[in-house]
Design goal:
It comes from Novosphingobium album. With 471 residues, the chain is of the alpha+beta class. It folds into 3 domains: 223 residues, no CATH class; 89 residues; 150 residues, Histidine kinase-like ATPase, C-terminal domain (Heat Shock Protein 90), CATH 3.30.565.10. Strand 8 and strand 9 form a beta hairpin. The longest helix is centred in the N-terminal third of the chain and has 49 residues. It is rod-shaped, with a radius of gyration of 46 Å. The protein starts with 8 loop residues before the first helix and ends with a strand. The relative contact order is 0.06.
């Protein structure tokens, strides 16, 4: 099963730190557990050795009581030593070799002879001597079956030592909680607490770092969409983050100033050029040759149209008019009707009713450019509007020769035109598609061109697809 990975910087860093801490804590917990278990077992073996040593050194006194009263009043602190001719190892049990080696070393250091050593771990309920004592103890105390069950579940360390092959076994019993209960639970709780504290501290630090970064990211996205210098992010977070925010604010202010200067310059250029062009249009009326006068007027009109396209393309990124809730289907229909009124071969395709926020003036400009290109190069235009997922998609189909696949993308760059065989006698400066694409980007959408092909591969025409998000 694949779990989703966090996509944010904080999530990925926190996941990496959490995994690293978990690995380190796990290794540390294993090492600590092993060390504590060795100390735990060593303490039990030392306690058993102490009992055996005390029994050996007090053998004369022990001989008087060793037969039956192996469990005196000291059972809650441990079991007394029992003498037996049989090994403490019962059928089906496996001795603890590691504990036997440790007990033999301790006894040797204490000068206690140990020809044979047997160590086995079992529950009280599995040990007949301890079980009998537990039953008698429960009866004396008047305890119920619940306490008897608890006694049967208690863990025992049973050690038997024989000084010589023909000697009796000295058997010592010690109550010992299981290592898992005595060591593992506290260690797991400690590890979990440390892990949560460390991860929590790292999460707070990462949050302090990533919060201003997230605010800066939102600000950059907003500025990229609107080029509005208002509402800059206040410096916060660590020093490095503060310096980044300060540098970005300075860069943003400089970009906004350059854009303002550009708008002022373009406005001045447009005014300075249109004024003499208007005067020139008046003067050509004095030209007597009608053909020459028409050519001059057409040239002036091309210059004015190109100038308008250049100014519009430069300003499309910083529109001054707000978005309006508009019925897109009605807008598309009104543009088509304009061409029908002029007798142009533009027809309706399938039109769905779509309402969304947009800038009607700019979108009309984009549609006129696309339909104009379809009429200019493809003789006819068919316009349709449909919903596709979360998009409103406008398609303009023509019946022209299409565009070679390797230059379709380049055709949407400013001042790029097709080959002469496609656009001879059509005029234009190659700005229509670039402006339409910029308007689509302004609305968060996209403009793509593609050739329609017949089953045999022949080009049937070009399709311009203008997609706008519905939200």
């Amino acid at each position: 099963m694949n779990f989703p990975r966090p996509r944010s910087l904080m999530g990925q860093m926190l996941l990496a730190v959490a995994v690293a801490l978990l690995l380190v804590q796990s290794i540390s917990a294993v090492l600590i557990y092993r060390a504590q278990r060795e100390r735990f077992e060593s303490a039990l073996l030392n306690a058993v050795a102490f009992r055996l040593a005390m029994e050996t050194r007090g053998a004369k006194r022990a001989a008087q009581v060793r037969r039956f009263n192996p469990f005196g009043d000291g059972l809650p602190r441990g079991l007394r030593v029992e003498y037996s001719s049989r090994s403490p190892l019962q059928a089906g049990e496996v001795s603890d070799d590691h504990a036997e080696t440790g007990l033999r070393e301790i006894l040797t250091e204490q000068g206690i002879p140990a020809a044979q050593v047997v160590v086995v771990q079992r529950a009280v309920g599995d040990d007949p001597v301890a079980r009998a004592w537990a039953a008698r103890h429960a009866a004396r105390q008047g305890q119920g079956r619940g306490d008897d069950k608890e006694a049967h579940d208690t863990h025992l360390l049973v050690a038997g030592v024989r000084a010589a092959p023909d000697a009796s076994w000295m058997i010592a019993r010690i109550r010992s909680p299981r290592a898992e209960s005595a060591l593992l639970r506290p260690l797991l709780v400690q590890t979990l607490v440390i892990y949560l504290v460390l991860v929590g501290a790292v999460a707070l630090i990462l949050r302090r770092i990533t919060r201003p970064l997230a605010a800066l990211t939102r600000r950059i996205e907003h500025f990229a969409a609107t080029q509005d210098a208002d509402g800059q992010v206040l410096p916060s977070g660590p020093d490095d983050m503060r310096r980044l925010i300060v540098a970005h604010n300075a860069m943003e202010a400089r970009i906004a100033a350059l854009l303002d200067e550009k708008d002022v310059m373009l406005g001045a250029i447009g005014h300075d050029l249109k004024t003499p062009l208007a005067a020139l249009r008046v003067r050509i009326e004095s030209v007597e040759d009608d053909t020459e006068r028409a050519r001059m007027a057409s040239t002036i009109e091309d210059i004015v149209r190109t100038l308008d396209d250049i100014l519009s393309l430069a300003r499309v990124g910083r529109p001054s008019d707000p978005r309006e809730r508009t019925e897109l289907s009605a807008l598309v229909g009104s543009v088509i009707e304009e061409y029908e009124d002029m007798g142009e071969p533009v027809e309706f395709g399938e039109i769905e009713r779509v309402v969304l926020e947009l800038r009607p003036t700019w979108l009309r400009r984009a549609l006129r450019n696309l339909i104009g290109n379809a009429l200019r190069y493809g003789q006819r235009a068919r316009v349709s509007l449909a919903r596709e997922g979360g998009l409103a998609v406008i398609r303009i189909d023509d019946e022209g020769p299409g565009i070679p696949d390797d230059v379709i993308e380049a055709m949407m760059h400013p001042f790029t035109r097709g080959d002469p065989s496609r656009n001879s006698e059509t005029g234009g400066a190659g700005l229509g598609l670039a402006l339409a694409r910029a308007i689509a980007d302004q609305h968060g959408g996209d403009l793509t061109l593609s050739n329609r092909r017949a089953p045999d591969g022949a080009i049937l025409g070009l399709t311009a697809r203008l997609a706008l998000p519905l939200t």
